[in-house]
Records
---
Amino acid sequence: MELEHIKNSILDIRGKKVILDFELAKMYQVETRALKQAVRRNIERFPTDFMFELTEEEMKNLTSQFVTSSWGGTRHQSFAFTEQGVAMLSAVLNSTRAVNTSISIMRAFVMMRQWALTHQELSKRLDALEQQYGEKFKDIEQVMNFLIQKDQKETQQQQRDRIGFKK
């Protein structure tokens, strides 16, 4: 399973990183109907922090981007699976393909979490540098503004002080 495709399938809904049921069905190479059926049969394994059903409003927001069927839209609300829900799916679907796919998806979630942490660290470092060198940059900015204004005054003076014959 290609990690880039998995990363692109991870969405941020309700402040959680999730993958929708139809995307997971493609990855697991099963029908969405079969995936949802397996989940409903084992619903006790999927508390709300593992999986939740999208609201009509959320579905409308996603429909134009992702979800269309031959009937002109989806007939059922999609399930959104968090990282833990995806891990639980491998137990529910109970196939070698499901286990391997879940491993790939877990790796993608881990990569995204590491990227987010790195991003936060870089942001903190930039803030620290900005604080450390902020005063120096202000001084440089003041000097640059002074030089620009001085240059403008000299240019204006040169225009006024021209002496000689004009054509």
Note: The chain has one domain: 3-121.
---
Amino acid sequence: MSKSSLLPLETITHRILLLREQKVLLDADLAMLYGVETKVLLQAVKRNLERFPEDFMFQLTNHEFNVLRSQSVTSSSEALETLRWGGRRTAPYAFTEQGVAMLSSVLRSERAIQVNIEIMRAFVRLRQMLTTNAELSRKLTALEKKYDIRFKAVFEAIHDLMAPAETKKKRPIGFAPWEKK
């Protein structure tokens, strides 16, 4: 966190969700970050709806709302905790990165400007992390092609370590029968 940073990067990144294949922040989380009530944030948005097309902001469907509610047990998101405990009657709004950027033109306080800067940095950081991961994978594939069979076992071990636990092959437990010669 830099000296001018209002919020730690982790405070923001833990609230970013993946919905409809987009990274979004929920209205209640944004309101908390901006230091306003959710209804105040939504009133400002509704007064300026022309600035928020569907690719900037959307309201969750009942199904998405219910799925989020059921998943909120493990989340640190304020918005999801509110969903879980029934503090809300309508489905929340989700703001994409562009929608969050547009909020800075609607919410004009000094805090809103600083929070927006931090949120934009969080989105950039997530993109950099995804790019780095993809780049490492490409480099490993290139190395595999470059080196011969001598290193095949090393690359297999690395791939095995990178694979999720549920896709790894399990060896049977116990003793195998003696082979007949």
Note: Residues 9-132 form one domain.
---
Amino acid sequence: MKERKTDKLFLEYMAVVRRLRKECPWDREQTHQSIRHSLIEEAYEVVEAIDENDLGELKKELGDLLLHVALHAVMAEEKKAFDMDAVLQSSMEKLIRRHPHVFGGIAVENAREVKVNWEKIKMSEGRNSLMEGVPKELPSLLRAHRLQEKASKVGFDWKEKGPVWEKVQEEIDELQQAEHNGRVDETEEEFGDLLFALVNYSRFLNINPENALRRSTEKFIRRFRALEQELVGRGKRVEDSTLEEMDELWNAGKKAGKNS
């Protein structure tokens, strides 16, 4: 078996990051706050590589994400707050503590039991509410999904999907009534309630709503670009086309997509 060089490479990698912090003017100026947005961006680029099943790109994007982890650890090290060793130690201890079915004597029958135990363990670690631990910065659909999952793990959930769909229909009626009333704030609130109910229904279909909406958005982009290309082939631009023309091409594109 080929000897792994991860330990040596990791030490060399951390040495490179520390040198950048000392010798590169740009890296030296950065703070936890200044590169916060880039960390989120890199995480999304990792997700995009996964969605496209591009393992070559995934390797690169994981490296970019690792750089941010290392940078934040080195910044904290400079302030004598903590270092990468402390990050790794804390993470390892958490993994062992939250997997007693692997590292302890707890028996579980399936993945659902693992998730239930996971939430119980997190509560025992000092959290005051089951709703803690889901970042506000998450995309709203994903955050709603995660919060509903957490509530479900302690039994706060419907038993079957029928009543969940009835709730969706109820929220549609309330949205239409709010719109009829002409109250913008009420309409926005009811629209949010409808989205929340749809996210809840997605759980009963075993669908991740964030993934579903992302796929539909990408499908819209593909079809609109095809529409644009078809118009160019006719010597026209989108801006100069009628809605009837675009709608005809859109429907033709949808039909072609389903038949392909």
Note: The domain at 140-207 is CATH 1.10.287.1080 (Helix Hairpins).
